[in-house]
Amino acid sequence: MTDSVKYLLDESRIPKAWYNLQADLPKPLPPVLHPGTHKPVGPDDLAPLFPMALIQQEVTTEREVEIPGPVRDVYRQWRVTPLFRARRLEKALQTPARIYYKYEGVSPAGSHKPNTAVAQAFYNKEAGVKRLSTETGAGQWGSSLAFAGALFGLEVQVFMVRVSYDQKPYRRALMETYGARCTPSPSKETASGRAILAQRADHPGSLGIAISEAVEVAAQRDDTKYALGSVLNHVLLHQTVIGLEAIEQMALADDSPDVIVGCTGGGSNFAGIVFPFLGQQLRGGKKMRIVAIEPAACPSLTRGTYAYDFGDTGHLTPLTKMHTLGSTFTPPGFHAGGLRYHGMAPMVSHLKELGLIEARAYHQTKVFEAGVTFARAEGIVPAPEANHAVKGAIDEAIRCREEGRSQAILFNLCGHGHFDMQAYIDYFGGKLKDLDYDEGELAMALAGLPAVAA
Ligand SMILES: *Cc1c(COP(=O)(O)O)cnc(C)c1O
């Protein structure tokens, strides 16, 4: 039997609560600090940007947070997502490893991002908000929030990183189809955007800059709040539906992972698959290896400093302790636009510091090679970001072959690549370069870290 096997659950098995890793952490997260006073922020400091329900989810240490009925109703459209045993890939690799992947590309926007977009739109609607502003890199988050905004009757404005805006016109068209307004960033619409354009008129943009623009717009208007697609605790919380479902599906397969792999941009899809399993481990369950894969051109976990930093380039956000390349760092314009963020989720950074997860960085040509191997075996064309997880899983499977060990490897296939085919065209045309970040720029960005007393 060499065909891939699909583990499905019916929609009654959609989790009723998200899982909160903060309940099981061996050491609590460092506090979020006010950028002016360097004192821990309170809920009121965040109220101009987020509805109170999400602010509470940011800090709660309750193990379970109930998923509201209307959010579960929307999830039913594509959840429970399938979990596959990749038997054809195993055969192609001639590995004794058992490779499983959870596939989040079945959502309307094509990635895991609607898991939190729908929840965030719901809580904002409940709080009487009329408009949401946000940033997007590759366009996955912008299209997910545009979708969720359409469902809940919210206006959505998306600041899209300029290089992706130019590279991915179909993502922009998708956002507009859902009714959102998409603005290339840096833009002239905000003071933060204008400041960047004054320095460099052809600036390619970065997530850090786009975040500043979106935060600025939200801070200025009472009817507008800001939505972030990754990094924050409440975003990671919403993504845990992935791992909660995977726990049940691995049980259906009568197996359990020895290694879990995910790609990390801001850390949300990684957290989504990992945290529920890690919670079991922390409560005395099976010990696993957990591996985060990031791009070598934007390596926050493997090369960044663990320090307090701003979430954005314009320094409008609070300070969070995380692995960071510095908030002014602009990574080169490689193809996995969703992984071009200077920081890493504080929760994922904390786990790295505690030695509970490993991290590796790969260059993009090897990552695309892995994605093509995967597509030819399994039929699904992964998003460029997801190719990092695919490459990580394939390397683990090859290690198993070399060591003659039969381990179970689970990875998150966080999205499909149907809007990213230009990247594949470039790969096949030999045009993908293994870009390195500029060491001088990194040193400068790190020298600019805010001075926070330990
Ligand atoms: C946004 C995105 C990422 C990166 O964000 P995370 O928060 O690290 O998950 C990765 N893959 C896909 C498909 C994305 O859309």
Low confidence ranges = none
The end-to-end distance, rounded to whole angstroms, is 57 Å
Sheet/helix structural class: alpha/beta
> Main beta sheet: strand number and arrangement?
7 strands, mixed
**Share of β-strand residues:** 15-25%
The Cα radius of gyration reads 20 Å
Describe the protein in words:
It is a single chain. Helix 6 links the parallel strand 6 and strand 7. The longest helix is centred in the last third of the chain and has 20 residues, at 384-403. The radius of gyration is 20 Å and the shape is globular. It has a domain at 69-110 and 234-447: Rossmann fold (3-Layer(aba) Sandwich). The protein starts with a strand and ends in a 7-residue tail after the last helix. It has helices spanning 43-46, 52-59, 69-75, 87-93, 114-126, 140-152, 162-167, 169-177, 191-199, 207-220, 233-239, 241-252, 268-282, 300-303, 346-353, 364-378, 384-403, 421-428, 439-447; strands at residues 5-7, 17-19, 64-66, 83-85, 98-103, 131-136, 155-161, 181-185, 224-226, 259-263, 289-295, 305-310, 319-324, 358-362, 408-413. Helices cover 41% and strands 16% of the residues. It has 19 helices and 15 strands. The protein has a seven-stranded mixed beta sheet, with helices on both faces. Helix 5 crosses helix 11 (233-239) and helix 9 (191-199) packs antiparallel against helix 10 (207-220). It has 454 residues and is an alpha/beta fold. It binds pyridoxal-5'-phosphate.
